[in-house]
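Got a spare moment? Tell me how you read both lines of this record:
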Amino acid sequence: MEAAAEAPGAPAALSCFSYNQDCTSLAIGTTTGYRLFSLSSVEQLDQVHESNEIPDVYIVERLFSSSLVVVVSHAKPQQMNVYHFKKGTEICNYSYSSKILSIRLNRQRLVVCLEESIYIHNIKDMKLLKTIMDTPPNTTGLCALSINHANSYLAYPGSASSGEIALYDGNTLKTACTIPAHEGPLAALTFNSTGSKLASASEKGTVIRVFSIPGGQKLYEFRRGMKRYVNISSLVFSMDSQFLCASSNTETVHIFKLEHLTDSRPEEPPTWSGYMGKMFQAATNYLPAQVSGMMSQDRAFATVRLNISGQRNICALSTIQKLPRLLVTTSDGHLYIYNLDPQDGGECVLIKNHSLLGSRKMEENKENDLQPPVPQSYAATVARQSTVPSTSTMPGYSEDGGALRGEVIPEHEFATGPVCLDDENEFPPIILCRGGQPGKAKRS
């Protein structure tokens, strides 16, 4: 859920943008610093924090909706800075042997990915627990970390020439398994919220596969297209694991529904189409595996056709004001919000376009208020809700580091030990990293 963006000539262009682990917050990096936004309302985009202390930010990651944020800049691409942004203080910093390509967080682990090594830290005290050395060349820093700290599974490319996935247990610090996911090199990886499923796509971008974790059995196979190869820029599950969204360098976003067709479904009426369907299904048993698999793959449940093409973008599936939404953030500094019809799918309805850049944000957002379409479907009917912001129904931390008012957070949402970051005592101070003394990440 992270993307780097390049927009030469634009003074405040997005250099990176990412959603937090439960898609309740958006972080953007620019040439002047970084900003954090809350995603609790459709009509309003609330800026939680802005910092101009570090210019040329190309990685910014927030831990859920807590006060912990991790930043890397082009000025010091080998140094990771961890901040408590509400206090305006640096918790620690670590330097590495080469450029930092990506960072992943959950409530137990902080993972730093370099081109040929991966560092795993304990997020409570930032102690370096493990260094995975001599990983296959990974020039994009592709990796995924389960947001469920109960397992903290880490997935990364197991080969530079094929689509093999290496699965690592971030809690036991042991290799779990390898998954032969694709023939070509990997382009995208993502876990569902519980860490029980892993989705992947190759550089061709035509097929998306979903595997069980930790066993690695293939559960689903979705085809986003056959006519042309694309670069998958974003792959993400909904928090309830019912949907999987994929976006690319094309103008189309695909949303797939994860559902099993069981043999207990009612018999189809004896019609000509039903008869042909059974004949088609029987015929696939006699076709080569590659052909029959292609014929039985599911198509997209819902789609979005963006007004842009070729721009870097990332997507998120979230529940905002009690309704399912698709969020699309683009490299030119816009956040598009769509309604998703969870029953019938189809074309998603655009309901809001927010600008993320500069002082023109409020004026442009007013200009982009969209009138509700004629209510012909579920998505159109719910397209315009009350303008009074309401809290997200997703579990997790609120902006002040605690539970949402009146909300009971499930036990699995909490890691053992202090993680709220509201008080200095709730995050063990790191003596070696304070006072401007950079911590050095050592090999283990």
About this structure: Residues 136 and 160 are 6 Å apart (CA to CA). The radius of gyration is 22 Å.
